[in-house]
Each structure stands twice: as C-alpha cells, then as structure tokens.
Q: What sequence folds into this?
C-alpha cells in the first residue's frame, strides 16, 4: 500500500504559471512551473492518485468554452508528465453561489465520491489560502507555495525540490 492516499493540486500557480490579472485561455499561455514535473514523478510513487481541483471562472464569464478548457488541462498534464488522474473544475462565478467554488469543499467531495478518498492521508498543494481553507476543513494536510509564508498552512514551501525531500524522508 502506498504511504498516502490522494495528492490534490491547485492548477494555476502550482502546475502552470499564473496569468496575472487574467486567465489561461490558450495553449501558448501554458508555462509549466520549474520542478513540478520531477516532483510529480516522485509523488506518483507515494500517492495512490493525483488530482487537480481548480476554480476557472473564465468559463462562467464566457471567455473560454468547457471543451477548450478540457484541452488546455490535457495539455498542461502532458507537459507536466501526465501524472494527473483527473481534473475537477468549478466553472462558476462567485455570484452563482455554487457548492464547488473553492474555498467551498464541493470539488473535494466530488473527488471523494469518485475514488473513496481518505482525506486524513491526503495532501493539498495550493498557492492561495482559498485552496487551503476547504482542505483544512476536510482534515487534508495543507501545503502552501508562496514567497510569503501562510500561518494557515501546515507546511510552507518555495520550490518543489523542498517538497520532494519531504516525501523521501
Ligand atoms: Mg492558484
Ligand atoms: Zn462551482
């Protein structure tokens, strides 16, 4: 049995570079973050599965079609080594008041239904506290990637190399 259950990842700012004040709307805007692929390769040995949970309000705003988002996600996954088993997307706007937009827990709960996930043996890696809030609520171990540490996170890190050593401990 693997040491951990599920590795949850945010997408923008974790797998691919975030577009400041905008959205990834086309393939040429995809740039994979340094070290992400190597980290995922190691993580794949320690987790039963790797899934992405991502807010994409660009869909709700009508800037991107769901079909194209699926293609962009596929491309991001390929460029990052194809270690992601599934992408869970909230396409809604805040004012839609859905149950899936992070910091709500909906995306995590849908994933749990699909895979019967043990949250207490799972990790969530995000670059915003919005990612950490629902994870913590579900007792998932939270990791925060940022220049500035969050007191909310269980673990702060700046580069993926640091995280790899955490798994190999
Ligand atoms: Mg993000
Ligand atoms: Zn939603």
A:
């Amino acid at each position: 049995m693997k040491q951990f259950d599920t590795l949850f990842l945010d997408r923008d700012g974790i797998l691919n570079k975030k577009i400041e004040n905008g959205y990834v709307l086309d393939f040429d805007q995809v740039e994979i973050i340094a070290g992400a692929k190597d980290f995922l390769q190691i993580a794949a040995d320690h987790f039963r599965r790797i899934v992405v949970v991502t807010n994409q309000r660009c869909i709700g705003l009508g800037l991107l079609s769901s079909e194209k988002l699926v293609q962009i996600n596929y491309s991001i996954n390929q460029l990052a080594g194809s270690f992601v088993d599934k992408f869970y997307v909230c396409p809604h706007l805040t004012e839609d008041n859905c149950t899936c937009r992070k910091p709500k827990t909906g995306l995590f709960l849908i994933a749990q239904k699909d895979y019967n996930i043990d949250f207490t043996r799972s990790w969530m890696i995000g670059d915003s506290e919005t990612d950490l809030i629902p994870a913590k609520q579900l007792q998932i171990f939270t990791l925060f990637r940022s220049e500035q540490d969050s007191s909310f996170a269980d673990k702060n890190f700046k580069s993926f190399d640091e995280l790899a050593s955490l798994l190999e401990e």
Notes: The mean pLDDT is 96. The helical segments are 36-46, 57-60, 66-79, 106-115, 129-137, 160-167. The chain has one domain: 4-167.
